[in-house]
Amino acid sequence: MTRTPTAAFGAALALVAVLPLGGAAQQQQAPPPATDPDGLGPVGANCAAEGYRAFDFWLGEWMVENADGATVGSNTITRISNGCAVLEHWIGGSGVPGQSLNHYDAAAGTWHQRWVGGNGQILDLTGGLEGESMVLSGERDGQDGLVLDRITWSPLEDGSVRQKWDVSRDAGETWQEVFLGLYRHTD
């Protein structure tokens, strides 16, 4: 059976007439995104649960000082992907950048961080809240064998955040502090 141009045009016109209605019906059924009480963007309906908000104390614009009070870098921490992840943009005092993507796995109840430094360093960390502190740890291959990393972010009463990075080269028997930073808000 061959269709005439008029019949084909009529079928196409009928299809076009139906499509906008289907799209409008779908738009009306979708709920609006949840409002972020901090004003940092919409929060996806699936990512508004408490576990996704556990690292919110780290959000903001920061200057980072070492234990002696010297500025060692700046950091911008933002919520992305409708509140489902946290993105870190680090610039060290020497100009070396780094970024981390942080996200909560609701099924496992754990946080994950993937850090990639401008010097080639990569960290894969997993963990969660311990008290009020976020503690993430992982292992990597070092020059002399396996290295364990443990990084702890602790919110302080004045709104600043303390970050402590410890490493172990003996399977966790002993730990050495390699970084202690104090994050102070600039925003």
Compose a concise summary of this entry:
With 187 residues, the protein is mainly beta.
Feature tags:
187 residues; single chain; globular; mainly beta; Lipocalin; 48% strand; 10 strands
Question: In the CATH hierarchy, what is the class?
Answer: Mainly Beta
Percent of sequence in beta strands = over 45%
Shape type:
globular
Strand order of the largest sheet: 1-2-3-4-5-6-7-8-9-10
- Note the main sheet: 10 strands, antiparallel, barrel
- Tally of structural domains: 1
Q: Evaluate the radius of gyration.
A: 24 Å
Task: Tell me the CATH superfamily.
Answer: Calycin beta-barrel core domain
Assigned CATH architecture: Beta Barrel
Helix tally equals 1
List low-confidence stretches: 1-37
What class, by secondary structure content? mainly beta
- Count of strand segments: 10
The name of the CATH topology is Lipocalin
- Average pLDDT: 83
Residue share in helices? 10-25%
Order of helices and strands: HEEEEEEEEEE
